[in-house]
Amino acid sequence: QVQLVESGGGLVQAGGSLRLSCTASGNIFSINTMGWYRQAPGKQRVYVASITRVGVTAYADSVKGRFTISRDSAKNTVYLQMNSLKPEDTAVYYCYHLGTQMYWGKGTLVTVSS
């Protein structure tokens, strides 16, 4: 089992910034990818960004140039720096860990006001 704990969500005005954190614990697979999905009210959960064990990153087109994902492997923590936030970024953000199977955090709410 892998446990994921997210933090850093909150309310921010459009144009502002937030940084999300997600720390993994438990039976962490040595070869893994961590990342983020988000789910807006009434919509499906969609991919946001990911980072591999060796630091290769990928982003959804909707956040490229505004969001930056990074990780501290020693702390088993992944970060999502979100800049130039827009109201359409409002969602519950879920951290995930992919090793031999997918694990999810419980989510953290990000609300961007216009």
Characterise this structure.
The chain is mainly β. It contains no helices and eleven strands. It has strands at residues 2-7, 10-13, 18-26, 33-39, 45-52, 57-59, 67-72, 77-82, 91-98, 102-104, 108-113. A hairpin with a 4-residue loop joins β7 and β8. The N and C termini lie far apart (40 Å).
Layout of helices and strands, plus pairs?
Blueprint lengths: L1 E6 L2 E4 L4 E9 L6 E7 L5 E8 L4 E3 L7 E6 L4 E6 L8 E8 L3 E3 L3 E6 L1
Parallel strand pairs: 2-11
Antiparallel strand pairs: 1-3, 3-8, 4-5, 4-9, 5-6, 7-8, 9-10, 9-11
| C-alpha geometry | globular
**Poorly predicted ranges (pLDDT <50, ≥5 residues)?**
none
Share of helical residues: under 10%
Oligomeric state = single chain
Q: Output mean pLDDT.
A: 94
Beta percentage is over 45%
Note the main sheet.
7 strands, mixed
Provide the succession of SSEs.
EEEEEEEEEEE
Give the helix tally: 0
Task: Report the span from N to C terminus.
Answer: 40 Å
Number of strands: 11
What's the alpha carbon Rg, rounded to whole Å?
13 Å
Q: What structural class do the secondary elements suggest?
A: mainly beta
Could you give a quick summary of the protein structure above?
The chain is mainly beta. It is 0% helix and 58% strand.
